[in-house]
Design goal:
Blueprint (H helix, E strand, L loop, with lengths): L17 H17 L1 H4 E10 L5 H11 L3 E7 L3 E7 L6 E7 L7 H6 L12 E9 L2 H10 L13 H4 L4 E2 L9 E5 L13 E3 L3 H16 L6 E11 L4 H11 L3 E8 L4 E7 L11 E7 L3 H7 L4 H9 L2 E9 L3 E3 L2 E2 H11 L17 E6 L9 E8 L8 H14 L3 E2 L2 E2 L1
Length: about 425
């Protein structure tokens, strides 16, 4: 699939600086000339770490709320690693649980800087892994572009030390890593995660019961793959975070929109080489329009920057697409899914926002933060072929709801 990177005009009303517009095109050109674009493929994996003792509980949550199902489990020198699959062509999930309850590495230390993150010191979205045709050449090219990689053998996490992967160090702008691999991550025999292990009968029975409950409720046919994932960052680092991600990937900057009611912007990057975003989910970056240290002059809402101050720069939510359709009695599929999940004990931040009548539109909702990963799950239903990731009204409502749930009490002041 051909895509004209140089002549694509980004969508949206968010103005970008001359520096951003200049280097966006320079990055596209350098990726092509360096050979990086000939090497990189779609997103192959999503990597999430949870605290010691939480992986089964987190997988139980994934079984109910997503199409992800366990394919294999491994024991490395430092972690249990569970590989979950939600479709033969979709990215796999790698869920990591430290073997030692006192495990600590650079991601732990990042969490400990922020009051709402230190409650779960090892719970963190680690990053994505992208397919590459040549791992060493990818490292060489990106190293020449001043990208820093985790030194193999130097990490406390055995996965980061594996010769099958190359991971960047956590980004100064997002806190996320980007990884690369030549391996087919759906092929369990090709993965060097450690010794294969079996879950206990009790653990297997728990996951089987959740899977059966989701199937009985009809959720397994309605919740599709991951559609996009959104990282929250600081106001002044929005452009830097986007340009860094473009340097590391084969994505393009799709566009950015101001969400004036919430004093923020939503910035979307997409992979042009797939015809379905679930094959390589979009990467979204959300940032305040005014930084916290001057916002007191304006008195504007500040839920996005408050999230960063309370949780740190990190992934905020992963969105799953819900199959478009009417479930009956005027109820859209997303309303049915959310209603069933509520009946099964899952909490959401607000009601479903958006209208689907007789024209293209979008219905969306945020769950509460996972107590295990700290991630929010979003559900999106695109009605009548809606082309996009949000509407301004929807995002404003979702951002406001999340902001009310993400406050931190210090003294008698609430963020």
């Amino acid at each position: 699939m051909d895509f004209d990177f140089q002549n694509y005009h980004p969508r949206g009303d968010k103005k970008n600086s001359d520096l951003f517009n200049t280097y966006r095109l320079k990055i596209y050109e350098r990726r092509q000339q360096s050979g990086l674009m000939d090497l990189l493929g779609p997103m192959a994996a999503v990597v999430v770490q949870v605290d010691h003792g939480d992986s089964i509980k987190y997988m139980e949550e994934l079984y109910l709320m997503t199409p992800m199902r366990l394919k294999a489990s491994y024991l490395s020198e430092s972690h249990k690693v569970h590989l979950l699959e939600g479709g033969a062509d979709f990215p796999v999930y790698l869920v990591m649980e430290p073997l030692n309850p006192s495990f600590e590495d650079d991601m732990t230390r990042l969490n400990m800087l922020y009051p709402n993150a230190r409650k779960k010191p090892n719970a963190r979205y680690v990053g994505e892994v992208y397919r590459t045709e040549n791992l060493k050449e990818t490292e060489r090219i990106l190293g020449s572009h001043d990208i820093r990689f985790e030194a193999r053998g130097g990490a406390k996490n055995a996965l980061l030390n594996s010769d099958a992967f190359a991971f960047t160090v956590p980004s100064d702008y997002t806190g996320n890593r980007i990884g690369y691999s030549e391996r087919d991550l759906h092929d369990t025999a090709a993965l060097p995660h450690g010794e294969g292990i079996q879950l206990t009968a009790e653990e297997t029975g728990l996951l089987d019961r959740v899977a059966a409950a989701a199937e009985e409720a009809g959720l397994h046919n309605l919740i599709l793959g991951a559609d996009h994932m959104a990282t929250r960052i600081l106001s002044g680092e929005r452009e830097d975070a986007i340009l860094e991600f473009l340097t590391l990937s084969n994505y393009y900057f799709w566009g950015a929109y101001n969400i004036n009611e919430m004093n923020s912007s939503t910035n979307v990057n997409r992979c042009p080489f797939v015809d379905d975003d679930k094959l390589s989910p979009a990467k979204v970056f959300t940032a305040n329009n005014t930084p916290s240290f001057v916002n007191s002059f304006e008195g504007l809402p500040m839920p996005t920057e408050n999230f960063v101050r309370n949780y740190g720069r990190r992934m905020h939510h992963v969105a799953f697409e819900v199959k478009d359709g009417d479930h009956g009695a005027g109820e859209k599929n997303v309303d049915y899914v959310v209603g069933k999940l509520r009946d099964m004990g899952k909490d959401f931040l607000a009601h479903v926002v958006g209208e689907c009548t007789d024209q293209p539109n979008l219905k969306q909702i945020f769950s509460k933060h996972s107590p295990y990963s700290l991630l929010i799950t979003e559900y999106v239903e695109r009605c009548f072929g809606f082309d996009g990731f949000f509407t301004k009204d929807n995002v404003a409502a979702l951002t406001e709801a999340a902001g009310l749930d993400e406050r931190y009490e210090h003294g008698h002041i609430f963020d």
